[in-house]
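User: Could you check the structure of this?
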Amino acid sequence: MADEPGPRPGRRTVGPTDLIRAGVELGIARLRLGKFRSRDVFDEVARGQHWLNSTKLMLVDRVAYLIPRVAARLPWRADCLVQALAAQRWLASHNIATSIQIGVPRDPRVQFEAHAWLIAGDRVVTGGDIDRYIPFRI
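Assistant: Sure, the predicted structure tokens are below.
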């Protein structure tokens, strides 16, 4: 799998427990998503943002690195919203405020599609390159 752009923590900062945690969070997020009503999704994405110190930024970078890589190797579907929910729960357990954004492509000629990504401070945690999307305003 090619490396995605974004933060790349050193190998020593990513351990086996981090990989297990990412898998567990993705599994929990997938189960939670299956129980959501459509209104619950929009309630879940409405969260505030706060300034992050350097210690919290290191965790944000580690989560941003791990979640998509582990998601790509799971036997169940762990798409953008599942990844955003998993990363949000992991970061919330460390009192890091995040915001899930859901958007559509900027280009009106593109067939309808939606994409979700997670923001912590001014960083995109999950969702990859979001430049081609416009977030919904709720």
